[in-house]
Amino acid sequence: MHLKSSPILVTILSLLYVPSILANPVEKRGKSGGIPTKPDCWKGLGLFPLSDAQALATELQTVEPDDMFYLPHRNSHWWEKGLVRMCVRNSFIAENTHVVRKYVGENLQQIIDKCCKKDEPYCEGGARQGKGDSGLYIDFLTVNAGANCG
């Protein structure tokens, strides 16, 4: 399917399809009870340009890649580029962790590789699970920039 539409139309359509699934994004659960380690692709949650996702993944892996950010319990942090948002979420009630930018970019690239078709200009993204520096499981989610990280 080849879509011909403007970024504004894509954003409007994406916002119409941002369900509460972002609060509990996937039905298949990993060992920790969170998002699976392998990417799980979204279906029907809205679109963002693949080029925006690729640019953000590259930026996270090359611009200050060793910068570490604090991710407190029950919080999320995100980065945006164009119409894509990469979210990192710590759902634990009392445990905090840190995450390096390069690792965020690597997780975004894994979601792109699994969930986005290289011959399509738009992607729906997905989610996967990784670990913070403390070994704590954290969630990585790609969504349209108009969506909430959950």
Protein traits:
two-stranded antiparallel sheet, 150 residues
In short:
The chain has 150 residues and is of the alpha+beta class.
Structure characterization notes:
- The protein is of the alpha+beta class.
- 25% of the residues lie in helices and 28% in strands.
- The strands form 3 sheets. The chain has a 5-stranded antiparallel β-sheet with strand order 1-8-9-5-4. It has a two-stranded antiparallel ribbon with strand order 2-7. A two-stranded antiparallel sheet has the order 3-6.
- The chain starts with 6 loop residues before the first helix and ends in a 6-residue tail after the last strand.
The profile of the biggest β sheet is:
5 strands, antiparallel
Overall pLDDT, averaged?
A: 81
Structural class: alpha+beta
Shape: globular
Strand content: 25-35%
User: SSE order in H/E notation?
Assistant: HEEHEEEEHEEE
Q: What is the strand arrangement across the widest sheet?
A: 1-8-9-5-4
Number of strands: 9
Furnish the topology, listing elements before pairings.
Layout: H1 7-16, E1 40-41, E2 48-49, H2 50-62, E3 68-71, E4 75-81, E5 84-90, E6 97-100, H3 101-115, E7 122-123, E8 126-131, E9 137-144
Helix pairs in contact: 2-3
